[in-house]
Amino acid sequence: MKLKNILIVVKDIEKSRQFYHDLFGLDTILDNDGNMILTEGLVLQEESVWKKFLGKDVVPENNSCELYFEEWDIEGFAQKLETLYPSVKYVNRLMTHSWGQKVLRFYDPDGNLIEVGTPM
Questions:
Q1: Could you point out which of 17, 22, 33, 78 has its C-alpha 20 to 30 Å from the C-alpha of 88?
Q2: Confidence band, pLDDT 50/70/90 cuts, at residue 4
Q3: Domain that holds residue 87
Q4: Which residue spans within the chain are E strands per DSSP?
């Protein structure tokens, strides 16, 4: 068995597509009526589609999982994030863990948690 994709729920699929393209360089592989597959295996699904299938509400900022990205130029990424999305909501701005890894955590426009860290 193989893990194929990670799906996150979004309110505005085009806004989210732009966000993930701007910050992480993810491109669209397939756009299919409320479902969009991006490179690296990230799938965006519109909230209305998710609610129809699941029959439950979406809880933004529930902090139950995160998308994790690695970036060598973490300072450059932090600057790009601040420039392109100055109103982003941070969990923590750029910091260094005791083991030396630099990370920052923030929410995407729909409250999905993202961590960007330097490779270990």
A1: 33
A2: very high
A3: 59-120
A4: 6-10, 28-31, 35-38, 42-46, 66-70, 90-96, 102-107, 113-117
